[in-house]
Structure formats: C-alpha cells, structure tokens
Amino acid sequence: MTIKASKTEQRAAKIRLGMVGGGQGAFIGAVHRMAARLDDHYDLVAGALSSTPDKSLASGRELGLDPARCYGSFEAMAEKEAARADGIEAVSIVTPNHVHFAAAKAFLERGIHVICDKPLTSNLHDAKKLKEVADKADALFILTHNYTGYPMVRQARDMVASGELGEIRLVQMEYPQDWLAEPVEQTGAKQAVWRTDPAQSGVGGSTGDIGTHAYNLGCFISGLELQELAADVHTFVEGRRLDDNAHVMLRFAGGAKGLLWCSQVATGNENGLKVRVYGTKAGLEWTQADPNYLWFTRLGEPKQLITRGGAGAGPSAARVSRIPSGHPEGYLEAFATIYSEAAAAINARKSGVAVDPAVVYPTVDDGVKGVAFVTACIESSKKNGSWVKV
Fold first, then answer.
1. Which residues of 266-286 are buried (b: 16+ CB within 10 A; e: fewer)?
2. Strands, DSSP E only, in the chain?
3. Cα 238 to Cα 196: distance, rounded to the nearest angstrom
4. Predicted pLDDT of residue 3
C-alpha cells in the first residue's frame, strides 16, 4: 500500500499470525500466506494446518514453523496459543466452509483476531450465531472477500458514493467459470470434492462459492441493501449434489433492480467476474480479467477509461496501489489489501486509537448477508423462482 510511515514514526511490530487449514495440497492457504507476506505486516508462527496431526506437522515443517507450534486441531491451537506470552494475535481460517464457525468461535472467545475465508459459514444459523460471538468478542473479525481490495473497485465505490452516477437504478453481476463442466469431483480432485459436498460446503454450490463473491462486490460498489430475490438455481452435471449454475433477480432497498448470474459450467470462461452499475447520470463497468481498468460513461458522452494510477483515479484507489501505473496489479495484491487493512485495524486496536476511516474490509455482517443470499436463492428456486425476502 502506498501509505508509509514517516521517518520519525516507528513501524508497528509484525502481527503474530496462526493458520487453520491450508496444509499440503491446499490452494487457498498458500494464497492467504502470500497475501499476508506481501506488505510485511505479519509473521506466521503457528498452525493447525490439517485435521490430520501428522499432515499438520509435515505441512508446518515445510513452512519452517516450530514443530511445537504445529497443532493437530484448531481447538488445541486456540487453547495453547492463548496461554503463551508470545501467542498468536490473529488467525487465518482457510478451511472448507463447515469448519469456519467452530474455529472462528474458538479464537474469538480467546480474544484472538480472526481473518476468515468466505463464505462466513455453511449455513445461516451458524452465521447468525457467529455474528453474536463476534459482536461480544474483544477481537476483530475480517472476512476475505478479496475482490473488494482491488484499487479500481475502491475507485468505483467512491464514485458511486460521491454521486457521480446519480441515483442507482441497475446493478448487474456475473461470475462464470467452466472448471466444473464435467464431474471432476468423481476423480477425487480435492478442490472439487469439498465444494460439491453439502456436508462441507453448505446448501449452495456455485451460489456459495462464487455467487457470494459477485453479490458482495455488487453491494460493495453500489452501497445498496438487498431486500428480496427470485432465483432459478440448477445442477447441470448429472449426479452432482449442489448447484452449478444460477440466475437471480434482485430487488434492492430504494427501488434499484439487479441481476446476478453465476456458473461453473459456462464453457470457455475461466474466472469471469464482472460488475456493472447504472445510475441516472452515468454508468460504470469493472471486470476482474482487466482489474486495472474501470470504464465510466456519463449519459450522452463517450466512454471514459480510468486506469489504476492514471488520470481520474482518486485517493481511495491510490492508497491501495503498490506499483506505478502501467504495471499490472492483480489477484494477490487485492488479497494482500484485505490483510493490510486488517493489520491497520488490529494495530489501531492494540494502540487504543481509532482506526483510520479510510480502512475498509468485509466484516461478519457482510458474511451473514452472503449466507442469507445463498439460503434465499435455494429457497426461491425450490418455490419455482418465487420472490423471497432476504
């Protein structure tokens, strides 16, 4: 991030970080570790990296952790680290969805800050209970909806909030992929197996895995609150137990309308996250495939391309940019922004000062909204697309 300490200002000590999940063979754990390292705010010192103690130890050794701090369960890690004078101050939870609730609760109740992968939990009951725990805890809860960390997403959010688009009328969100176009879970592919398992993932497949990202991003940029939805949720691959495609109509508070499409069987799409927002004065469009660009069009005028670090980009984008314009910043940097925002909030809490108002990160409230969105999608689809309040 571009904000740096002055020569007379002492940089805060690195935050002692633990990790639950993310051991050998895991994808997202490595991403979280890279994101935590990028801006140098954290020091990974402990982990319960697998539900299998031997694998947890082996994974920890690969990462250079002290074997004594490689735990066989998150319960043991929470208890023992909380008792240490040099115990972890924050924990990353990067497990399948069904573990999030119990793991986050164990650390929050011991005053350890939680940085948790999305979605918040595998079901709405647990999501609401976790919010209760987080609200009472003397610790912060950060949800890693990482796409909110992109500079041009912050730019878009600011432009909406400042009224440059006028009154928002329409929000369109899409997130198509094709990696589950065939029953790859039947081959034992780890990422596919748990994501298509209701016991681990929850009631939503594509809706929970990527639909929540699109929904969160649309709301983050537009500032709108969802009131009700009507969904057509479908499973195209025979034998699959969760949805792999969904079309959702949305009604927001204030009268704006929305449309969301998420799919993991859309042949030819790799990671096609895109958001469009249209108001009475102007519209904008951002796509994750070209994250350094934001298209902005005032009514009756030619389209304008705003680039990260270029003319027209404001301070909200600049403060989460790391390199000069014309050099691409992408997925890992956006993920790192969430970790750096979390570090700013954690350090402010440690120092007993108010956090900078510019610091923005998804919270447990955003997590509850995401799980409520998935739950409502499934309920609506079972009722043949009837409108369901969220």
1. beebeebbbbbbbbeebbbbb
2. 15-20, 42-48, 90-93, 113-116, 141-143, 168-176, 226-234, 245-252, 257-263, 274-279, 282-287, 293-298, 304-307, 388-389
3. 12
4. 44
The pLDDT assigned to 129 comes to 98
Coil, helix or strand at residue 233 = strand
What whole-number distance in Å separates Cα of residue 210 and Cα of residue 27? 16
Task: Say what the pLDDT of residue 8 is.
Answer: 41
Instruction: Give residue 7's pLDDT.
Output: 42
Q: Where are the alpha helices (DSSP H) in 185-330?
A: 190-195, 198-201, 206, 212-222, 315-318
What is the DSSP-derived secondary structure letter of residue 70?
A: B
Q: Are 283 and 168 in contact (CB under 8 A)?
A: no
What confidence score (pLDDT) does residue 1 get? 53
List the chain residues with pLDDT less than 70.
1-10
- Per DSSP, 136 falls in state H
Q: Are 3 and 22 in contact (CB under 8 A)?
A: no
For position 306, what pLDDT does the model report? Answer: 98
Q: To which H or E segment does residue 382 belong? A: helix 364-382
State the Cα–Cα distance between residues 362 and 164, nearest whole angstrom. Answer: 24
Between the alpha carbon of residue 387 and those of residues 151, 235, 256, 294, 377, the distances in Å are 35, 20, 15, 33, 9
